[in-house]
Design a protein that fits this description.
With 288 residues, the protein is of the alpha/beta class. It is built from 11 helices and 11 strands.
C-alpha cells in the first residue's frame, strides 16, 4: 500500500501537535501565526481523517482523549525527527533562544559571561526575559528558565546547576552604627526562605526586626551599599561588592550553604538544540 494513503496533511499534524502540547487552541494559533478558527479547522480535519475525536472540549479548557494522548506520544518524536533532518540538510541557521530569569541574575551573573556563549554559538541569539514570576516553560513562553530557590516548580523539570552561599551583609558605615535594629532588605518573594533558613542556621532570631520589601535583588544590593539596611548576601552575585569592600558581613556568623541555589528549568518535552547547547555551556562555566 502506498505510504501517502496513511499520512494525514502535514498542517493538520502541526496544528494537532501544537494544541496537544499547549492544551490550548489560542496558544497553538499564536505559535503557528494563524487564526484560532484555522487551527480548529485543521484539528477537525485530522479527526475526520482518523475517524475519532482527539480532544475533549470543555467551556474553559480542553483535554486529550485517550486516543489523542496515544497519538500525540507517537507522532511527536516523528515530527521532531523530521525537523532535525531538515535542520541538518539546511545547515546552521540563526535561531533565537528565549530565557526567563530574574533581572538580578541576568545583571550580576549571566550577562558578564554571555560573550563566551555568543563566541562559541554565533548562530544562537539569546533573548533574556527578566521577570519576578516564573515564565511558562512548559507552555512555550520561553525555551528555558533560570530560577533561584529550592526547586519544586510544576509542569517542568528543574536541575540545580549552582548552589548559593548566604550571609547577611551591609555597608561598613551601617555596621559601624549597629545592625541590631535592621531593617532587613528583602527581594519580592512568596516567602523569605533565605532569612528563615539562615536564622535556623545561625540561631539568631530576627523575627522582631523590621523589613523592607523591594521589587528585585538588584535594588536590594544597591540599597545595602547605600547604607539603607541589611541584605541577604548571595555570594555568587555580590562577590565583586565584597572584594571592593562596599559590603561586609553584618554578623559574626559562618556563611550558610544548603538547598538554596540556581536551577535550570526546562520543559518536560525534549529540549531544542539551542536550549541543549546553552545547558551544556552553563555546566562548563560552573565547572571551570
Amino acid at each position: 500500500m502506498p505510504l501517502h494513503q496513511d499520512l494525514p496533511p502535514l498542517m493538520a499534524l502541526r496544528a494537532f501537535e501544537a494544541v496537544a502540547r499547549h492544551l490550548s487552541f489560542i496558544k497553538a494559533a499564536d505559535e503557528l501565526s494563524v487564526t484560532q478558527s484555522a487551527i480548529s479547522h485543521q484539528v477537525h480535519k485530522l479527526e475526520e481523517f482518523l475517524e475519532q475525536p482527539l480532544f475533549v472540549r470543555r467551556t474553559r479548557a480542553i483535554d486529550l482523549t485517550p486516543a489523542g494522548e496515544q497519538y500525540y506520544r507517537q507522532i511527536e518524536p516523528a515530527l521532531a525527527a523530521i525537523a532535525a533532518a531538515t535542520r541538518d540538510l539546511r545547515g546552521e541557521r540563526s535561531t533565537t533562544l528565549r530565557i526567563g530569569l530574574l533581572a538580578s541574575f541576568a545583571t550580576l551573573w549571566l550577562a558578564p559571561r554571555l560573550a563566551d556563549f555568543n563566541a562559541k554559538y554565533p548562530n544562537i541569539h539569546v533573548e533574556l526575559l527578566p521577570a519576578v514570576q516564573l515564565a511558562d516553560v512548559d507552555g512555550g513562553e520561553v525555551d528555558l528558565a533560570i530560577r533561584y530557590g529550592k526547586g519544586g516548580w510544576p509542569k517542568a523539570q528543574a536541575h540545580r546547576f549552582m548552589t548559593e552561599t548566604l550571609t547577611p551583609v551591609c555597608s561598613p558605615a551601617f555596621k559601624a552604627k549597629g545592625v541590631q535594629n535592621g531593617p532587613l532588605l528583602m527581594a519580592k518573594s512568596h516567602q523569605p526562605f533565605e532569612w528563615i533558613d539562615w536564622q535556623q542556621h545561625s540561631g539568631i532570631d530576627l523575627a522582631q526586626v523590621p523589613s523592607v520589601m523591594l521589587h528585585d535583588y538588584n535594588i536590594v544590593v544597591e540599597a545595602a551599599v547605600a547604607g539603607q539596611g541589611i541584605a541577604m548576601g548571595r555570594q555568587c552575585l555580590i562577590d565583586r561588592r565584597l572584594k571592593e569592600g562596599a559590603l561586609v558581613p553584618a554578623f559574626d556568623t559562618s556563611p550558610m550553604t544548603g538547598e538554596i541555589g540556581y536551577w535550570l528549568v526546562t520543559p518536560e518535552r525534549p529540549p531544542s538544540p539551542a536550549a541543549q547547547a546553552f545547558s551544556q555551556w552553563l555546566e562548563q562555566v560552573i565547572d571551570a
